């Protein structure tokens, strides 16, 4: 069948993994954008970002936002992977229907 790249089990696995990726990365993105204090260890900042800034929290908040937007972008990629996997599942079902 044309366009069929992966089998039914691999497509189902892709759907499950992409669903988890979208949920997890979306939540992380939201928490980073809201500047959650728990995630401070995951923000890539140096001492100069804190000590040499005239308005200290703003540079750190910009880094939080940058990481949050990266998480949202990664969630969008997982969403595309999930859509691709769903299409592969439908193509596999159509192939099984046509064979039987």
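^ Assign residues to that structure.
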């Amino acid at each position: 069948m044309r366009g069929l790249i992966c089998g039914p089990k691999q497509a189902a696995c892709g759907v499950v993994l992409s669903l988890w990726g979208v949920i997890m990365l979306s939540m992380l993105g939201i928490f980073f954008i809201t500047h959650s204090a728990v995630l401070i260890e995951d923000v890539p900042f140096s001492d100069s970002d804190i000590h040499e800034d005239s308005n200290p929290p703003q540079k750190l908040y910009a880094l939080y936002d940058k990481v949050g937007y990266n998480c949202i972008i990664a969630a969008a990629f997982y969403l595309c992977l999930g859509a691709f996997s769903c299409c592969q599942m439908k193509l596999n079902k159509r192939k099984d229907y046509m064979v039987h």
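The longest helix spans residues 56-99.
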